[in-house]
Amino acid sequence: MFLNEFLLLAAVLFCIGVYGVISRRNGVLVLMSIELILNAVNINLVAFSAMTGAISGQVFALFVIAVAAAEVGVGLAIVLAIFRLYRSVDLDDVDIMKG
Amino acid sequence: MIPLFAAAAQNANAPFLTAENVAFAIIASIMVFSAVRLVTTANVVHAAFYLVSVLAGAAAQFILLGAEFVAITQVIVYIGAIVVLFLFGIMLTKAPMSGEEKPSRDNWIVGAITGLILLTLLGYVLIDGFGRDRLPGDRLPTSTGALSDAIFSSYLIPFEVISVLLLAALIGAIVIARRD
After folding, report:
1. Which fold has domain A3-93?
2. pLDDT tens digits along B52-89
3. pLDDT band at B177 (very low <50, low <70, confident <90, very high)
C-alpha cells in the first residue's frame, strides 16, 4: 500500500472539517467538524507509525483522542451556556464581542 | 487520487488491486461521503450518525494499519462516549431537527474556497513528498503490550499531564454548564 493513500484521505477529511467549521451555523455541528479535523490528524499519526515502525505515533494518537474528549466536554458546556443566554445555538447570533 | 493511480501504473511490478487496497478504497469512499454529508446536512441528528460513520471508518483504517489498540480506543471513546455527548448536546439545545432553517452561513462559499485551496496545497505537497513511499508489506500488528510499555515508560509524564487535563476539563465543563 502507498503511504499516500492514507495521507490523502486524511487531507480530504481535514479540508471537509475546515469547511464545516467555517460555514456551519449550529455550534454543535462546528464541534463535530472539529472532531473530523482531529480524526484526520489521528489517521496521519497512525499511518506514519506504520510506515516507520515507531510506536510513538500510536501513543500520540491515543493522546489526541484524550484531548478530543476533553475538548468536546468543554465545548459542549460552552454551547450550552450560549444556548442558555441566547435561546439559540446559531453562531451568527453570538456577536457580543463584535466591535 | 488520480496521480496515485498513475504512479501505481508505473510501478507495475507491484499489483495495486490487492485486498487491502480494495478494502481501503471502500472504507475511504464511505468516510468521505459521510464527512461531506456531515457538513452539509440540515438535520443535526443525521449529522451525528454521519459522524459515527466517519469515526467507525477511521477505526477500520487503523485496523488496516495494524494499530489494534488505537482502533478499539477509537470505538470506545469516540463512538461510545463523544457521540453520546453530542447527542445530549443536540437534545439539550433544541436545535432544529428538520431542514426548514438554513444549515449554512451566508459566507459558506468562503469556507468552500478555503477548503479547496487547502486541499490543493496539501495534495500537491503530499504527492510531491511521499509519492512513491510504500508501507512495509510485512508489517505486523502492534501489540497492546508494546504500546502500554511505551506509554508507561517513555511517555509517562505526557500521560500524567493528559490525566490532569481531563480532570481540569471535567471541572471546567461542570462550572461552565452549571445553572446558578
Report:
1. Helix Hairpins (1.10.287)
2. 999 999 999 999 999 999 999 999 999 999 999 999 99
3. confident
| Residue B59 to residue A12: CA distance in whole angstroms | 17
- Residues with Cβ < 8 Å from B125, sequence gap 6 or more? none
Residues B79, B55 contacting (CB under 8 angstroms): yes
The interface predicted TM-score (ipTM) is 0.93
Give me the residue from B21, B31, B110 closest to A22, CB to CB: B110
Rounded to whole angstroms, the Cα distance separating B104 from B115 reads 15
- A53: alpha, beta or left, given left = phi > 0 and alpha = psi -120 to 50? left
C-alpha cell of residue A15:
479540508
Look at A53 and B139 and tell me if their CB atoms are within 8 Å: yes
Instruction: Say which DSSP state A92 is in.
Output: G
Q: Minimal Cα–Cα distance from B51 to chain A, Å?
A: 7
- Largest Cα separation within chain A, whole Å, is 52
Residue A25: per-residue pLDDT: 85
Q: Are B37 and B99 in contact (CB under 8 A)?
A: no
Per CB-CB distance under 8 Å, the chain A contacts of B95 are 26, 28, 89
Tell me the HSE value of B30 on the side-chain side, using a 13 A CA sphere: 18
Domain range annotation of chain A: 3-93
Q: Which fold is adopted by the domain B2-141?
A: Four Helix Bundle (Hemerythrin (Met), subunit A) (1.20.120)
Which of A1, A14, A43 is the best residue to mutate to test the B interface, defined by the most B CB atoms within 10 Å of its own CB? A1
In chain B, where the domains are located: 2-141, 143-180
- At residue A30, the pLDDT reads 93
